[in-house]
Request: fold
Amino acid sequence: MSWNITGKLPRSMRCIFALVSAERRVSLLGRTMSATTKTSREQEPIDASSRSANLEITWFTRQAIALGSQNFTIHRNVESCRTPRRNKDIHAVLRFHKSLHEWFSAVTDLLEAIYVIPNAKYPSLSRGIGIQIQDNFDLMTFPFMENSTVLPVLDTEIMFNHEMMSVELLINRLDELYAPVAGNTMVSVAEASLYLHLERAKAMLVHYSQSIDYIEHLLRKQLLEALGKEITPVDFESYMRFHNRQFLASSYAPRPFSRSIRPDEHQNPVGMISIQSSRNFENSNEPIQTMTRRIPGGQGNPPVNIPLDSSSFVQISGDRYLSGWLRHEFASVGGTGVVSLVARARQFSSMMLMVGTMTSADTFDPKYAIILQNKDEVLIPLITETLPSAKEFKNAIASLSPEQQEFATSFRAMQLESSVFAICVVQLKPQLEKLLNLPPGSLAKEIQLTEDIMSLFVEYQIPSDIVSYDGQNEALSVTDKVQVVKEYVKAVMEVIETRKRQQHDGEYQNAGVRSAMMNDFPTPAPTTSPYPPSVPTKARSPSPKPTFGT
Reply:
């Protein structure tokens, strides 16, 4: 089937200027074209539907108006400028270059889609308008340098002239390939030249972006050569510790978060707690460096309340430590390691560890608790979450409605209120002395007595009134008071042992009876029992064995 094709180039190519109030179309290139072709099917060889490729050039025109030309400058005195690649100015340029590259690609795709027409005289042109153009020109958009300085203007002009000569040679070749044919003016050197310049512009944009990245690479290489190694987060933390020692007084410098738990400064510790951090590429665990403020207990400072249930609470009046941790991370390093809470109790010592949050200035909300004694050690991984800073939060809610901003602000206040991680350590031996009405330090060397009392309270839930000192005779010495408590504990332990013996004897006898009933054998004497029988049992005569005939 024969088709007569006429049209006007370009019908839908346009620029949208955002600086004007209404849309304005500016014709960049135009030509009337016609062609005659034949197809074997009743289908139009060219899609006649309207196509368009739009480009936003507001940023480019603003730059031209502000600078008076197409020159571009990086403002190095701005605080946000880090390197030639990491600054707001170059980021804006690369964003515009990306949109410009996408527009160039859209235009070349349109040209390729429109001008793929069977051509008997030039079969190679039937494969597309760009088949003779791609990768056939030279580009000089590279960061050429000599001795770390930009090349002289004369050398730059020589390279630019060489590039233009390669483009002119390619255009002359296109004049021969796309010479007008009688009756067929659909494809001409105008479209081929347009396609050539668009492809050349696309390549220039890619080379410009690679050049900027190459300059960044050179700066990074120089820095690594000066330092002698690639800096990791662990190396940077080591540097920060060195920096803090040089510029901060010892009372203000960050210290390792590792605390010894002791009754007072003159006694040996009963345990220790620390928060350790380990990186994925480091095997060692080291305490984190924190800035700490000590708040002495008492001295007019209100106690901290620990709620036990809805109607009761406990008050803690010991020393408090407020610590802050400045964490350093690199965006290029995957994974930030594991942060863990480590607690350990010494031999013949005990303490209670509680983990929770501070809901107010004087209220501690415990979430978990554990008793550590006799070389017990616990390691608790801590899951940390990063909350946005006040500036980031303000920018994030700037476009929300007033109602949404109010709700987001209230929700953030709730998050910040319960985000203070808190650890509470209670030494059990001083609390036992107070609970048993004994003088301070009276259980310091009573190891067995302390172990028995802990066993009664933890395992058997014995009320404290049963073993505490009554306090009727205050004239007794510390040794006599401790001896009274020992007698109480001994009596309770004897009752527990008697109950255990009776329970064991009953279970042992019941087991013997069940065995005899199942096998019809005499009940074995309880000679292997670890406890003597509390109630004598009567001997049973063996049952006669049944006889069977042949």
